[in-house]
Amino acid sequence: MPLFWKPYKSDATQFIESLKQKDPQLEARQREGRNLLWDRPIDHTAESDFKQARVDQQPYVYQTKA
What we know:
Layout: H1 11-22, H2 26-37, H3 44-53
């Protein structure tokens, strides 16, 4: 390795790191926002009902049934 070698950081990585330095609570707020949308309890009865109600797709979607 060269004596003055330093690892490459892209512009996007540098931008995100500077945002995190300016606002230390940023990552915590991002996690809270994620919890609102994605981390929800699963309703297993509703999921099984959806699977049972599923109708198989016909082999050629645009063919009308005669």
